[in-house]
Design brief:
about 160 residues; alpha/beta; binds 5-nitro-6-ribityl-amino-2,4(1H,3H)-pyrimidinedione; four-stranded parallel beta sheet; globular; 6 strands; two-stranded antiparallel ribbon
Length: about 160
């Protein structure tokens, strides 16, 4: 019979690091609320969440790497917001943030969730930070829970 691994969404007894960009803080604050709400609804204690603030999305990968390599956390959840209208270097900031977080996920082996909004407009960002398109911070937290469980089960598989 085929064996299958599916992630369980359990946050109890796990420790989480949130790397949060201060740039567009009025959006990222809402991503933090969404992420922490999702973690707590799945059993995480307040004391098991560490929030680390960095200047902008560009700095998220470096902070996420430090957090992942510290060995203190079950997962790292990176939260940021890059809006195209605000800068001609949108592509660079967004690209480096996404690429860098992918690098952290691959090279550290610690589940690293990408909760960085890359939007054309402020309205799109609001929609995704607790507005009509949900909360991408909460989505990233759920992704972290799923990947922790998937990795654990792969480790135990015979
Ligand atoms: N950082 C963001 O998080 N979002 C943005 O939209 C943004 N824009 O528009 O420039 C932004 N820039 C700052 C960048 O992340 C770095 O903090 C900065 O370049 C210093 O390294």
């Amino acid at each position: 019979m085929a064996r299958e691994i599916q992630g369980q969404l359990k946050a109890e007894g796990r420790r989480f690091a949130l790397a949060v960009s201060r740039f567009n803080g009025f959006i990222t604050d809402h991503l933090v609320v969404g992420a922490e709400d999702a973690l707590k609804r799945h059993g995480c204690r307040d004391a098991d969440i560490t929030r680390v603030y960095v200047p902008g999305a560009f700095e998220l990968p470096a902070a996420a790497r430090k957090l992942a390599e510290s060995g203190k956390f079950s997962a790292v959840i990176a939260l940021g917001c890059v809006i195209r209208g605000q800068t001609p270097h949108f592509e660079y900031v967004a690209g480096e943030a996404v690429r860098g977080l992918g690098w952290v996920a691959l090279h550290t082996g610690v589940p690293t969730a990408m909760g960085v909004l890359t939007c054309d407009t402020l309205e799109q960002a609001i929609d995704r930070a607790g507005g009509k398109a949900g909360n991408k911070g909460a989505d990233a937290a759920m992704c972290a829970l799923e990947m922790i469980s998937v990795f654990e089960q792969i480790g135990r598989a015979e």
